[in-house]
## 1
Amino acid sequence: MDQLNASEIYSPYRFFAADRWAGFRADTPLTLTADEVERLRSMNDPVDLEEVRRIYLALSRLLSAHVEASQLLFRQRKQFLNVDDAVKTPFIIGIAGSVAVGKSTTARILKELLRRWPSSPKVDLVTTDGFLLPNAELRRQNLMDRKGFPDSYDVGALLRFLSDIKSGRSNVKAPLYSHLTYDVLQGEEQIVDRPDILIFEGINVLQVRDLPGDGKAVPFVSDFFDFSIYIDADEDLIHSWYVDRFMRLRKTAFTNPQSFFHRYSQLPADAARAIAEGLWANINAKNLRENILPTRPRADLILRKGADHLIQEVALRKL
Ligand SMILES: Nc1ncnc2c1ncn2[C@@H]1O[C@H](COP(=O)(O)OP(=O)(O)O)[C@@H](O)[C@H]1O
Ligand SMILES: CC(C)(COP(=O)(O)O)[C@@H](O)C(=O)NCCC(=O)O
């Protein structure tokens, strides 16, 4: 047993240095190759096979235990109620964290690892950006500078989507977002057809809403989660990742005339950097402080990254 200091004893989490966490992998096999990891990672994310070995295999093993336990509970409840027509509903994993912290890479790696379990579960991945209000509506409500803030999402649609998924409906539609055009894709959608596991990723997935004055119970997105993960790093690091990514996108995605940010590919580097700094300070950092970081204590698991983007510490909620 490790020595615990006082703050750890009274914290709802147990903290593990990444190398200690790696040991919980036990005999979980490595089912991804270096090439596959390279294809799954986002542009500025250096995650590699060693990181999958160190962090993600133990996480995959933990999630497998949770999924198995929930399936057992489902079977026992069915027996208890003596019903045959109970519908098995998807196990939902929420992934939260700041803009530019690397949620998409984590979500894609987890998806691939989970679908390679021996039971070959069907795993789907949905991101909450599709539930943003379209730019035309954001402009109408003067919210273009609040993209990603709670009021920029169609929360009703988001909750309806999760409720449909959790009630076992087939062919549930999720709207899609394009980072290229910086807008919701009109007329395009993703069909989610009764997966065994749904990964639901976005900055807002652990947010709660104020209770209305009339005392009516309002559901939260996380009410539908079976397990939640928060990806964390110091704000200074995320800030530098955001600006570095913007400067790289300036040389790649922004050169596409269809990119909403195309004009920034034409600007000198200093002027482009000033735009990125402005977007970070006025929108994303503000949102992180006001609406995202306050949700961290609601996560079941926190993956904390260091300067190199690699995970340094894992905090697991004590049951
Ligand atoms: N303006 C942009 N143009 C093209 N791709 C982008 C742009 N902004 C972000 N992306 C890509 O979109 C994905 C989601 O990014 P983001 O929402 O910041 O979350 P995270 O970095 O936590 O995954 C990343 O793969 C990122 O590289
Ligand atoms: C779409 C986003 C809110 C992020 O959503 P996510 O997929 O990370 O949940 C973000 O990428 C964004 O557009 N922020 C607004 C300011 C900016 O352009 O960076």
Note: The chain has one domain: 6-317.
## 2
Amino acid sequence: MSRKKTSKSKGASTPAASTLPATNGPRPARSGTARPGPDAPPNGPLQPGRPSLGGGGDFYDVAFKVMLVGDSGVGKTCLLVRFKDGAFLAGTFISTVGIDFRNKVLDVDGVKVKLQMWDTAGQERFRSVTHAYYRDAHALLLLYDVTNKASFDNIQAWLAEIHEYAQHDVALMLLGNKVDSAHERVVKREDGEKLAKEYGLPFMETSAKTGLNVDLAFTAIAKELKQRSMKTPSEPRFRLHDYVKREGRGASCCRP
Ligand SMILES: Nc1nc2c(ncn2[C@@H]2O[C@H](COP(=O)(O)OP(=O)(O)OP(=O)(O)O)[C@@H](O)[C@H]2O)c(=O)[nH]1
Ligand SMILES: [Mg+2]
């Protein structure tokens, strides 16, 4: 297996028309993310074992694309920043424009797994931009906000969209974010669990603010994708559902 290098570049696409109902009003745009930069990765699949990006960075063995989707304001960018940089973006909410990406290389059982993580705009007006990226995603993290009922109610519409645009075997996980906001919670954990069970999805509650279950969500996806691409006959099958159930922490526990 060859060693590759990652880029730390960022990219984006132009806004376009939408297909799903908006759940949040217009917001200020995150500057500098509206058009693809010179280092933007191609909108094609990252083939495990093939270099896809130029530039310096960490070595890796296999690479996968992971997309974060869900309504505007549910915390996709914050979750990504928490995972990538270990920080929380508090203060003014700056809505993502089009699409943005970040890379991180994880060590999964001795294998360097590069996750190229696509942070999509939840706003309705960018929806057709993100449609173009679904096809190449190996995994999708579908988020709702436990303090926003509409974002939970929209999960079924998101699943319909995923069904229409993503690969049929895409790895998918449902995340209920912002569980640190206990007083504002309007979506019970059991409701998330019930919906996840209905659709056969692994489920966790997370907090980009405290870091609860954030690393776990990305690590679980990395393990699943690595297993799918490199499984040897002797290796026991990795079960994403079981892993997430076993390792996930409850919202009452505020340790990252
Ligand atoms: N309390 C709390 N606030 C959060 C959490 N995650 C995000 N937020 C806040 O929620 C707001 C929206 O977060 P973003 O990450 O920008 O939301 P987004 O899903 O990327 O939104 P779009 O880019 O418009 O799709 C910001 O004000 C964040 O500070 C969390 O886990 N807990
Ligand atoms: Mg965002």
Note: The chain has one domain: 62-251.
